[in-house]
Design brief:
3-stranded antiparallel sheet; mainly beta
């Protein structure tokens, strides 16, 4: 088993509509248009109306999508 990383992000959306969950997705460095493409990174995006989308630049490594990936809204 290789090295594993961990991230804990806390995002506050006080004006989100009750019962609505924010959306998230991973984006390749080649999809984004804000900075030079770098294959060493990917982006984790969060979206929730009425807020703008926010993104975190993270190392481009395989994401474990098993039961260890969870969210709580």
């Amino acid at each position: 088993m290789g090295l594993m990383g961990c991230a804990c992000l806390q995002i506050d959306y006080p004006e989100i509509e009750e019962g609505t969950k924010p959306r998230h997705r991973f984006m390749s460095a080649y999809e984004q248009r804000k900075e030079a493409q770098d294959k060493k990174y990917q982006f984790l995006l969060f979206a929730a109306d009425p807020y703008e989308v926010i993104a975190f630049k993270i190392p481009n490594s395989e994401v474990d999508r098993s039961d260890r990936l969870f969210s709580y809204w």
